[in-house]
Amino acid sequence: MARSDKIAAVDEIAEKFRGASASVVTEYRGLTMSQLTTLRRSLGDGTSYRVAKNTLVKRAAQDAGVAGLDALLVGPTAIAFITGEPVDAAKALREFAKTHQALVIKGGFMDGRALTVAEVNQLADLESREVMLGKLAGAMKANLSKAAALFAAPASQVARMAQALADKRAAEAGVSADATAAGDDTADNATGDVAEAPAAVVADSTEAPAAAES
After folding, report:
1. β-sheet bridge partners, residue 52
2. CA triplet 30, 67, 116: central angle to 5 degrees?
3. Longest dimension (CA), the chain
4. Among 48, 125, 68, which Cα is nearest to 94's?
5. What is the pLDDT at residue 127?
6. Measured between alpha carbons, how far is 97 from 124 in angstroms, rounded to an integer?
7. Is the separation of the CB atoms in 72 and 110 below 8 Å?
8. 47-52 and 77-82: which strand pairing?
9. Which residues contact 115 (CB under 8 A, 6 or more apart)?
10. Are the beta carbons of 126 and 132 closer than 8 angstroms?
């Protein structure tokens, strides 16, 4: 590859890193061209699957401020640059790898840090964006004007919100049970705290997407 071509390739890959909400590094040794085409189609329009030389990827990652991937860049490398929903892309990659053992998921990058294979699999385990939004909308139906702000949030962020909501509900349930058993004024105080909790959850949740985008 001519020097000018290498520079152009590095610039292209660096731009893909900058524009991606997440990236997943894979090894594709043994996959045929037909299988690679099938994989690209399964990833959808929100993800581009780029085969590249490791030396070029390393330079591009450095230019884009992406750190922690060097150890993954060994062997035939292809990177899924995700501009759509990271959860959906992670699911598609894992499902393809189940039926095509030649595809090996090695790790990735999201939210400013490198991801291990286990973390990519955890991302794939999350419920889809539509399911998570449906649950949050139901939980916050008393204040849907604020819940509407979440509909642009990625599922990975929505999942963290849902977990926080579940943890708060569990804590509230424990407070209510303790208050009932005590049979004194503590029950009235606990009831007041629980009544105010959903509004707090909504406030916290509506702020989260903006933080994730910064």
Report:
1. 77
2. 55
3. 81
4. 125
5. 74
6. 12
7. no
8. antiparallel
9. 22, 24, 107, 108, 109, 123
10. yes
Domains by residue range for the chain, with CATH: 3-125 (3.30.70.1730), 129-213 (no CATH)
| pTM, 2 dp | 0.63
Coil, strand or helix at 51:
strand
pLDDT in tens, 158-205: 566 667 777 777 777 765 555 555 555 544 544 444 344 444 433 444
**The two structure tokens encoding residue 194:** 């629980």
Distance CA 90, CA 154 (A): 13
Q: What percent of the chain shows pLDDT beyond 70?
A: 64
- Residue-wise pLDDT for 26-55, tens only, equals 999 999 999 999 999 999 999 999 999 999
Question: Which tokens sit at 187?
Answer: 């029950």
The pair of structure tokens assigned to 85 is 């929903």
Proportion of the chain in helix, strand, coil states, percent, rounded to 5: 65, 15, 20
CB-CB contact of 99 with 105 (8 Å): no
Which residue spans within the chain are E strands per DSSP?
22-27, 47-52, 77-82, 104-110, 113-115
